[in-house]
Amino acid sequence: MKTVDEVSLLFNNKARSWNDKYCLDGPLAFRVTVFSAILARLIRQGAAVLDFGGGTGAISSVLASQGYKMTACDVAEQMILAGKRAQSDKPIDWVLLPKDWKRLPFANNTFDAIIASSVFEYLSDLENTMKECSRILKPAGKLIVSVPNLAHPLRKLERLLHPLANFGVRVPFARDLPGIGPYLVYLQLSRVRLSPEEWSEKARSVGLDPIKVQPPETESASSKAMMYLVFDRSL
C-alpha cells in the first residue's frame, strides 16, 4: 500500500497542471499521437476502450472525439477531478479506483482495448494488474502500453542514478529542490523496468500474446525513451 499511496500523492500533486502538458506543443503531446495511431490500426471506431491510469483524460478526450467509447480510471482522485473539469464536453466515463483495489470494477469481456500510458512502471502488483486486464478484455482485445525503454541512454543513466534517488528522497531539502526533487521521487517510484522479453513472458502467463506494432515516428526525445508494447488476448 505504501507504494500506491506514494504514486497517488505524486500524481495528485501534479493534477492542476497535468492536462497542460498534453497541449499541442506540450512535453507529453507525443503520447496522444502515438496511442491514437496504434489504436487506429488495431481497433475499429466505436469500440469500448479503457484508459487505465488515464490521469486527466487528455488521451481519452482525443480518442472520444475519434469515436471510441472511452472509460478512464485512476487511483489519483485529484487527477479524476481535474479531468472532469478539463474534458467536461467529452463523453468519458470516469472511475476512481480504490488505492487497495484487487479486482477492477468491470465485468469480464468488457473492453475491446486497454491503453496504459506510462502506468505499468509504477505498479506494486504487476501480475495481478495484467491478469485483470486480460479478464476485462474481450477475446482478441488489445492491451497497449508504454513503458521505459531500457536500451535508451537515458534509461541506462537512470539505472545508475536509482540508488542515489532512494537516498535523496530521504533528504528533506533534496525533495524540495525545483526539478531535482520531483525527478528523484519519480526515479524511486518507477520501479517496474523490464526488457521486451520479460514483458512478453509476463503477458503470456496471463493469456496475453505479444504482437509487433511499429509506433509512429515523433520528434519527441521523450518518446524515444519509451517502448510501445501491444498484447492480444488469446481466444
From TrEMBL:
Pfam families: Methyltransf_11 (PF08241). Residues 50-145 form the Methyltransferase type domain. One of its GO terms (molecular function) is S-adenosylmethionine-dependent methyltransferase activity. Gene3D superfamilies: Vaccinia Virus protein VP39. This is Methyltransferase type 11 domain-containing protein. It comes from Candidatus Sulfotelmatobacter kueseliae. The lineage of its organism: Bacteria, Pseudomonadati, Acidobacteriota, Terriglobia, Terriglobales.
